[in-house]
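Write out this protein's structure.
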Amino acid sequence: MDTIRTGIRVLQTLQTARAVWDGVRSVLGIEEEPHYVLGRTRAERNLTIVALVGGGMVAGAGLALLFAPTSGRELRARLAERARERRGGDAQRGRHSDWSG
């Protein structure tokens, strides 16, 4: 809950800072910043960034599946077995089982 309050305070501070900057800019006669960067509008730039991040996520997931040492079925069975072991005696004694293999 404190994190949310802190986030709201930060956003309010940023909003206040933006209002102050707008006031200073108007007093000094500085024009509004252009809505394009490097020949692209902000929307085009943002869409490009989202597309690149999404493409990277898809490529990373594909590579992870390609180079996975076990099949999904084997991995799920192994994780379930380790979870059963941990719920057993190891977790009660404060020791953890070896996840390396």
